[in-house]
Write a structure and sequence with these properties.
Helix content: 40-55%
Number of helices: 11
CATH topology of the largest domain: Jelly Rolls
Shape: globular
Structural class: alpha+beta
Distance between the termini: 44 Å
Largest sheet: 6 strands, mixed
Number of strands: 12
Order of helices and strands: EEHEEEEEEEEHEHHHHHHHHHE
Oligomer: single chain
CATH architecture of the largest domain: Sandwich
């Protein structure tokens, strides 16, 4: 699949794709989609109308209201399990998964909101003739949920601080849609493809407990050197590099979304201590963890 890029007027984006330091008026966005797919997203610009967004955290009370939407609603589950009825279908999403509620259909909660459930939500309008070619699913598992979190949080920060211009809101929604529509890696029947997928899944399950190349090799039944060569050929990076990136991604999400102490984040992300975490984070992002957290001062929580 080819890689292309497009420019959205009035947008801003994280410098070097690491931290939202310089928010500029022009945004160049690399797309891992076909040129025709990216062109369809760009074409939405004049028709897209963005409404509002928030972060919902349940205390175990209430139920999703029964209503017929006039807009699309993007929902990204951050913790817990959300189940909704859409027409005659039942939609379900767990942590890191998304629901896309479509206009013109009745929606209601299957059950009371469970305690511990948290999800981002955002409403936007798009005429049917513009939305149809996108073939938006009703359920999706984004490849990079951490990037979705940062985009949602950016939207909420600017919304609360009065900085969310119409152009920026459209830009951020298009970025969210681009992440949502990223095609998953094609399942390969060859050993190299299977190994690469297995390595990624194993790291995702275990990275907080400091996974090691030797442990992966033992688990998958191949030599550490062979695994690393296969992975680097497929991903352009070594397995230890990938593990470090995953830890930083998780740390970014925790810094944005929680009030956890640095030592608690360090523990959750597999670092020996807060000092080790701080050094690693600053080397990867150019910012100390406290500086990065200061870029997202508001939590924008709706409690029920």
């Amino acid at each position: 699949m080819e890689t292309t890029s497009f420019i959205l007027p009035g947008a801003g984006f994280p410098a070097k794709d690491n931290a939202c330091i310089n928010r500029v008026n022009t945004c160049t966005i690399p797309l891992s989609m076909s040129p025709s797919a990216s062109s369809r997203l760009v074409a939405l610009w004049p028709a897209l109308r963005v409404e509002t967004a928030g972060l919902f955290i349940s205390s175990g009370e209430g139920r999703h209201a029964a209503r017929k939407l006039r807009s699309f609603e993007l929902i990204l589950v951050r913790s817990g399990h959300l189940r909704l009825h859409e027409g005659k279908e039942t939609l379900s999403a767990k942590q890191g998964e998304m629901l896309i509620l479509h206009p013109g259909l009745w929606h209601r909660g299957v059950e009371r909101y469970p305690a511990g459930l948290a999800f981002y939500w955002l409403h936007f309008r798009l005429p049917a003739r513009w939305a149809a070619p996108l073939k938006l699913p009703h359920h999706a598992v984004p490849i990079r949920p951490h990037r979705m979190v940062e985009l949602f949080q950016w939207f909420l920060d600017d919304q609360q601080n009065g900085l969310l211009s119409e152009a920026r809101a459209r830009s951020l929604v298009l970025l969210l849609l681009e992440e949502l529509l990223q095609p998953p890696p094609l399942p390969g029947g060859d050993t190299a493809s299977w190994l690469t997928t297995s390595i990624e899944e194993s790291i995702a399950e275990d990275f907080t407990r400091q996974p090691r190349l030797g442990g992966l090799a033992k688990k998958l039944g191949y030599s550490a050197d062979y695994l690393d060569r296969v992975f680097k050929k497929a991903k352009g990076k070594t397995i230890p590099q990938f593990i470090r990136e995953r830890r930083i991604e998780e740390a970014r999400s925790l810094l944005i979304e929680s009030n956890l102490l640095l030592k608690e984040i360090a523990q959750r992300c597999g670092y020996a201590n807060a000092a080790h975490f701080t050094r690693s984070f600053q080397a990867a992002t150019g910012l100390a963890p406290q500086q990065f957290r200061a870029l997202y001062p508001n939590k924008h929580i709706n409690l029920h």
